Amino acid sequence: MFSRVGVFYNHLKTHILPLAQEAVAFLRAQHIQTELLTSPEDIAGKDLIISMGGDGTMLRCARVCAPNNIPVLGINCGTLGFLAAAEKEELHQALQAVLDGKCTTRTRLMLRVCVRHNGTEQTLYALNDCVLHCANMRAFSVNATFNQTPLPPYFGDGVIIATPTGSTAYSLAAGGPIVEPDVAVFILTPVCPHSLHQRPMVLSANGTLCLIPAFKNTEDRAVATIDGQIHVPLAPGAEIEISRAPFAAQLLTLAQRGFFTVLHKKLSWGQP
């Protein structure tokens, strides 16, 4: 049983506020200590975060909650809601399932992204993906190694390194495979490659992938984008090292909302 709950919503989306307040009132009526949050960073003392928004809100919550071993329950108030446990119309049903202990916790692999340059290091974490792309939409080369073994260089608009969770996001749109969430792998998907021979690859999540962007023009720059939300400009010569994060996201789900059911409902997988 959870005793200290935070209900987070994107304060820029004011239409979600009444529903978030409804969730707070429901839980308080059950004598659960509940607080309305406008920043997922305000998680101190919480043992459950309820994310009310779309997949972007879920991604933001997961990156904050995973290092602190706090599970996240997603209520979809956005467009797709692929990561959510329930739709907004199912709010009370989902909250009651939490109170009754009928939710399942699914652990989701995350990426550890280290950006290194001239002896400095910046570490970030991603639930969906890390995308390496050019700042000004120019084709460029990406030199890569996996476990220190060189891979053929990629030339195109960039590369996507996705988790199984992120395999149904940008990677899928770029031609990558759908990967069941419990499989411990990285998906390396080229973005608009200038070659007929470059194809997506599935790599063991126990390995380490290193990427170094290379440009013909000295003024061009690359950017590493984390979960489509955090953008890190890369200085010339910067190296991006990607490995498995030392923790996993914990997403609560309902029994009727399994991966293949959501895949069929949300992305029309298997439709005739």
Summarize this structure as a short list of keywords or feature phrases.
elongated, 19 strands, 6-stranded antiparallel beta sheet, 272 residues, alpha+beta
Report on the structure:
- There is one protein chain.
- With 272 residues, the chain is of the alpha+beta class.
- It has helices spanning 17-29, 55-65, 91-99, 170-173, 259-267, and strands at 4-9, 33-37, 48-53, 72-76, 86-87, 104-108, 111-117, 120-126, 129-134, 140-146, 149-156, 158-162, 185-191, 201-204, 209-214, 222-226, 230-234, 239-244, 249-253.
- The mean pLDDT is 93.
The SSE string, one letter per element, is: EHEEHEEHEEEEEEEHEEEEEEEH
Using the alpha-carbon principal axes, give the shape: elongated
Radius of gyration (CA) equals: 20 Å
Q: In what range is the share of β-strand residues?
A: 35-45%
Overall structural class, as computed from helix and strand content, comes to: alpha+beta
Mean pLDDT: 93
> Quick one: biggest sheet?
7 strands, mixed
The number of helical runs is 5
Counting copies of identical and different chains, the oligomeric state is single chain
List how many beta strands DSSP finds.
19
Helical content, roughly?
A: 10-25%
Low-pLDDT parts are: none
What separation lies between the terminal Cα atoms? 42 Å
Explain briefly what this protein structure is.
By secondary structure, the chain is an alpha+beta fold. It has helices spanning 17-29, 55-65, 91-99, 170-173, 259-267; strands spanning 4-9, 33-37, 48-53, 72-76, 86-87, 104-108, 111-117, 120-126, 129-134, 140-146, 149-156, 158-162, 185-191, 201-204, 209-214, 222-226, 230-234, 239-244, 249-253. 17% of the residues lie in helices and 39% in strands.
